[in-house]
Amino acid sequence: MRIGNNLKLGVNIDHIATLRQARREMDPDPAAAALVCKRAGADMIVAHLRQDRRHIQDSDVFRLCRLKGETHLEIASVPSIISVVMRAKPDSVCLVPENPREVTTSGGLNLKKAPGLARTIKRLKDADIEVSLFIDPDAAGVRAAKSLGVDAVELCTRPYAEAKGKKKVKAELERLELAGYLAYEMGMNLHAGHGLDYHNVQAVARIPHITCLNIGFSIIARAVFAGLKGAVAEMKLLIS
Predict the structure, then answer these.
(1) Does residue 94 have a pLDDT over 80?
(2) What angle do CA 76, 42, 73 make, to 5 degrees?
């Protein structure tokens, strides 16, 4: 079980790149943003290299992976993306579902409909890249992830973040906690993320055995008013 305040914060910087891509300019630079996040207390820099390259670009990935500290990529299990990852060598990756029409990731991977996933996982692990799967918080997903030999699971917190009313919120927290216990018992590291913000994060941070929270949009949105350093530091304090 996690002891004390050593819960890691992964800061997703995708939307720094979203702003840059709006004008195809040099700024704001995701690598520079990563350095600010680290100085403010981020334990890990997270970025999603999408197939449509809507925000993070290949060059960003290589620059992020050269920075001191932990770099974590969210990726779809497709050959063109895996090729970039194998050359950039991030510390870890999370395999996620991806739909070109989605605004953001809508839920966890359907592990029953993911051909070639085992092959991708083996290839990444053979390259000494830690692998996690983004899954919905249910027992079937946790067991399937274990059978695929990943190092960790990241539980999708979107249903919790969107829940309305105390009863529904409690039910979603219980789903996360039960899935978390199972992942822990099966020997996998436990991460969580998606839709977490300054108002809802603390309940998730208190879930037993959870070791890392990956948060992006809410931090970047807060940074518009509070500055990036202040937004990251505030989130780090909330989960500590």
Answers:
(1) yes
(2) 10
